[in-house]
From TrEMBL:
Protein name: Molybdopterin molybdenumtransferase
Alphabetical list of InterPro entries matching this protein: MoaB/Mog-like_dom_sf, MoaB/Mog_dom, MoCF_biosynth_CS, MoeA-like, MoeA_C_domain_IV, MoeA_C_domain_IV_sf, MoeA_linker/N, MoeA_linker/N_sf
Domain MoaB/Mog: 178-317
Keyword hit for Ion transport: no
Enzyme Commission code(s) on record: 2.10.1.1
Annotated organism of origin: Aquamicrobium ahrensii
Keywords, sorted A to Z: Magnesium, Metal-binding, Molybdenum, Molybdenum cofactor biosynthesis, Transferase
Pfam family, one: MoeA_N
Amino acid sequence: MALVPMETALERLLQGVEPLTAERVPLDQAYDRVLAEPVTALRTQPPFHASAMDGYAAHGVDAGAIGNRLAVIGEIAAGSTFSGTVGKGECVRIFTGAPLPAGVDTVVIQENVKVAAPGIIELLETTVAGRNVRRAGIDFMEGDLLIEKGRLLGPAALSLAASANHPSLSVVKRPLVAIIATGDELRPPGSATGPGQIISSNAYGIAACARAAGAEVLDLGIAPDRRDATAALVREAVAAGADVIVTSGGASVGDHDLVHEVLTGEGMTLDFWKIAMRPGKPLMFGRMGEIRCLGLPGNPVASLVCSQLFLKPLLARLGGKPFRQDMRAAILGADMSANDHRQDYVRARLEERDGKLVATPFEMQDSSMLRVMAAAGGLIVRAPFADPLAAGEPCPVLLID
Ligand SMILES: Nc1nc2c(c(=O)[nH]1)N[C@H]1C(S)=C(S)[C@@H](COP(=O)(O)OP(=O)(O)OC[C@H]3O[C@@H](n4cnc5c(N)ncnc54)[C@H](O)[C@@H]3O)O[C@H]1N2
Ligand code: MOO
């Protein structure tokens, strides 16, 4: 079977993927979520002409001349109001955020006055009429559209929604990802391993990628290489309402590689399988109704590279989030030989030299080597059939966490 080119695989992965339905969450849980309905202002802010400074509220005509003396006839703090009338030659002590008395339009800051006598201030500077006042509605008016649907909610958007009097927001649901590791040889971290056994590591990195893309994770543990055991975990994932089922291992051609058979038996229609990439060739993708199934290769580095390249964009799209791979232009730190028919993602050490990013491939690129992967800041991307590349030549690098 011909290997599927990377671009084709990515295109088919995202074909027809729409953001999930909405759910309402309290504001304090809405950070980094995607707005499903526009936010309009339920109130006007500020709801009154407010003082922007601590000082004295006065008529503009009284504030303009140095030496003017004004009688202080009252005081207003933020949260209270002044019900009296301020006449010409009068003022009211006022604090930042407090509503201006009716008819008054200017605040003289307290640094620009001196107390001339008890209850009398004298102006030391001129203040232009209208200064130091926030007019009602300068931020927003009731009914204004404040935040558009589809916006990723950051700190300012959350404070704005709160200020507009929304205690909760309608956001796109987080995709739920069920992760199933497969393999008789696998034992959870912390186990004593017997002959032929290794520690199951893939689910941890896959889960971290999923969370980074905004998903919730359900780790269903390890299925031994038996159809019934693997099918039982797939059914558990379906029953839990998973939007995406991710398996690791069992995707290749070995006699114990059951994943395709089991997923198909549970109702998956295969979309594509086996990609022209390295690592990650055995990657499998299909649909089980609305559920997307991603069969990741068992080799630990392949599972991580495929999570970065396939799982993250799929989850971001389901969650309505923008997503772009972080590609950088770098300088190659060592010669590389010509590439074969698979797009290569070469683990590389990154460093900055003379303000330029230098990417040096690790000598050992075996897709079982997690230590190399963890030390790599990026993956040099080598197109299929790329010519040899000499140290010092430019090369594209995909930054990884
Ligand atoms: N004859 C062929 N053999 C292989 C091919 C091929 O095309 N023809 N492809 C190779 C490639 S490339 C990869 S990648 C692996 C992937 O195969 P599977 O997806 O079936 O993975 P497994 O055989 O189950 O495991 C491979 C390797 O990874 C270890 N593993 C599996 N799961 C975990 C886990 N959760 N944590 C840590 N390590 C895990 C497993 O023990 C194996 O060592 O197939 C090649 N073979
Ligand atoms: O492509 Mo496999 O994923 O090399 O290790």
